Amino acid sequence: xxxxxxxxxxxxKVIRSDGAPAEGKRSRSDTEQEGKYxxxxxxxxxxxxxxxxxxxxxxxxxxxxxxxxxxxxxxRGGKDVAFEIEERRIQSCVHFMTLKKLNRLAHIRxxxxxxxxxxxxxxxxxxxxxxxxxxxxxxxxxxEITKCLEFKSxxxxxxxxxxxxxxxxxxxxxxxxxxxxxxxxxxTLARLDWELEQRKRLAEKYRECLSNKEKILxxxxxxxxxxxSLQPRLNSIMQASLPVQEYLFMPFxxxxxxxxxxxxxxxxxxxxxxxxxxxxQACDKTLSVAIEGSVDEAKALFxxxxxxxxxxxxxxxxxxxxxxxxxxxxxxxxxxxRKEMLKRHPLSVLLDLKCKDSSxxxxxxxxxxxxxxxxxxxxVTTTMELITPISAGDLLSPDSVLSCLYPGDHGKKTxxxxxxxxFDKVGILxxxxxxLELGHPYLWVQKLGGLHFPKEQPxxxxxxxxxxxxxxxETTMKLxxxxxxxxxxxxxxxxxxxxxxxxVTSDCQCLFPAKVVSHLVKxxxxxxxxxxxxxxxxxxxxxxxxxxxxxxxxALIERGTAKLxxxxxxxxxxxxxxxxxxxxLNWKGEKTNSNDDNIRAMESExxxxxxxxxxxxPSYQLLTNQLQRLCVLLDVYLxxxxxxxxxxxxxxxxxxxxxxxxxxxxxxxKPFKYNHPQGFFSHR
Amino acid sequence: LETTLSPQAExxxxxxxxxxxxxxxxVSPCGKFLAAGxxxxxxxxxxxxxALSSEAKEESKKPMVTFHAHDGPVYSMVSxxxxxxxxxxxxxxxxxxxEILKKGCKELWRRQPPYRTSLEVPEINALLLIPKENxxxxxxxxxxxxxxxxxxxxxxxxxxxxxxxxxxxxxxERSPEVLSGGEDGAVRLWDLRTAKEVQTxxxxxxxxxxxxxxxxxxxxxxxxSDWMVCGGxxxxxxxxxxxxxxxxxxxxxxxxxxxxxxxxxILSAGQGCYVNxxxxxxxxxxxxxxxxxxxxxxxxxxxxxxxxxxxxxxAGNSCRxxxxxxxxxxxxxxxx
Lengths: 684, 336
Description:
The structure holds two protein chains of two kinds. Chain A is α+β, with helices and mostly antiparallel strands.
């Protein structure tokens, strides 16, 4: 219908809360405008929804009542019923129209409500959008602000001088204190100014210094040339003075020649040469120092690399041409590599030490270039030819004469720890296998050459340390001489011992009684392993006193049926380190220090009380005196043995020694101490 | 080439250790320390409590202090409740236990018995304390027993009878009597009040225990009032004193140098490295090896003040003193 169409049009409406009277006017104005419409929308505003609802309920009730009455009438039947029904029908139609109106009104109300909601929502959305925009802008601005705040100007990276320094140092026209103190911006500008100023000045200085340096370098060149032109002039003077030198017996030239050769020595040998010569001149005029070997070969070692490169390329070319030539086998290659590694410098230094008895110790010192160590070969010569007794074989042999000159310095291992890696590459196990050929790398030899391999910092090898060499020279020379002398003394003594005679010098006769019956029947050298196998030497081995650098001997002393075996450990440091004895007596059973306290006492008499037996310095008589004492001790032991009452017959050894007492103390010690000059025996 | 000790000194020290003999031992009155005397005249004091504690290290087995006590070997030592008495080269010296751990300790006093001989100073091999009289008996090289009053230091009596030097002494508390054994092969009993020899047993004359190839000397003695055990050249034998008869001969060949009663056992040691545990019946209960090839002295620490240090220590022909915490085995050794 037309009114429902008009209600669907969306007209902006002002919601008024006035009462009804406007209704008529509005509807008239509407109708005036749009041509006489009945506006139900306007009507809706004026009616009370509650009353409409009541009307609706009432109308429904009435309809129900009417229907019920109609139903009644219809069921009753009759003539006047139709009229009644008709009346009621008309009333019902009226009610239906009321309902329809109410329905329309309801719809209109609904629509109105919806429209209002929608409007409000629109407004809210608009505000919301505005808010978002503003927030977004705020955020953006904040970001910009932080960016601005974080901005670091390049000038802040420059390390400026401190404020105090600036004000004190900068000239007032730059520092402008009055302005800058108050204004930090100006201050910074001023400081930057000052910085620039300073840098300019320094750049200037730098240029000045560079030019100075150039000047000085030129001056040095000039002076060098001058000096190098001096050398040939001096040489000619030297030559001219030769006849004068000879005339005046001043062989500077000879020494000069030696120094000339020495210049080609490798540094360690050079240190040794210089220090030994100095020592010889200062302390030992009999020491002679010489250099042996080929100077040309030494010079050849320092050929410039270009030549060798040419050689290499030539040889490569050759190889390419003759590919049929066989390459050397792997074994030969390795052998060559080993030889190369163990190569000695062509020059060597010779030292000849002369001892008091005119025997000479010849030392030849070598330098192994690739291993950076020195070795030495030794030889002893005497004025008269020595006939070496069998047991004295190792005393003066080149391999062992200098062994353990200092304790523990056995010279069988390389002192340079870096060598081990080099050895591994070419399959060398130890330098020990090559010492006979190359010489021994004793530690004192390295020291004399100024070489030092510090254990805590193996990579810092010290080379050419003259002070080290000098500080060890005197002690080492003295030890070398003592060593040779003591070995020669032992050599002579061994010759006598092998003939069963214990040589006692006249100044040591007071240590022993006049009559000594027990005598030495055997004196032999035994290998180290044999000493270790003996049963009565176990405690010496366990105490670590029987290492493989010592020499070992077996002596046999006899009297009647008694046989005394003595196993001797001779330390290379003899005679400052005493020989050590262990005894085994075979007489009425086997007696050693483990089952006979007196055998133990006898060992003590020679091992612990050795100082009495040293004789006058340098104590080379110690060993022979110890042996003589053992003979005396055996005499005392046998003669003082208490007589066994159960056995028939006299004692095998009648007592001839004068003793105050036979036994003393809980261990029943025999009187082993000899008293001179009274000649009796007593207890310690 | 630089060493703390010169090589000669190192070798010399090693030789000294190898040839050292520890002759005597004595436990302190508090039970925590052990004094040991050697053939060089040195006395070393070991701390038993430190060596036995659970935190003991190698250094705990070394002496706390070692000092030079006598010019000759220290053959014998005993302790009173405050003093350590040591003797060897003819002199007996007294040391205060409380001072002994301090460096540079000096003897409190030294006394020399009136000897007959003048040519050689005789050694003192044995010391015996007589608590009831507060006196000390010394015996040794001059074949006499001397008794010294500990209060005044005067020598009260000299008992003569032995014909050769005296090795050992023992005290028979009940009577009181002193037993002495000597090189002459006799064990002699002396009554202290009358200062006379009351009984003599010439051990070597009895066939069951004599061993002529070893000699007749009596090296060790111990007594349990009615019983006496002695050994040396002759076999180790248990004697009934009143009747002077040998009741048990212990079957061991090696001459014994020390013997002692302990609970129901007899402990002996001598040539050979063993400490022998004997039943009174003569059976060998145990033979415990020590670390020295021959033993000269045994010491049982029975001081009531230190029950945790109750150990048996054995010393002899080496620089070591073996410590047996349980009699059955050697726990460890102290060393000079």
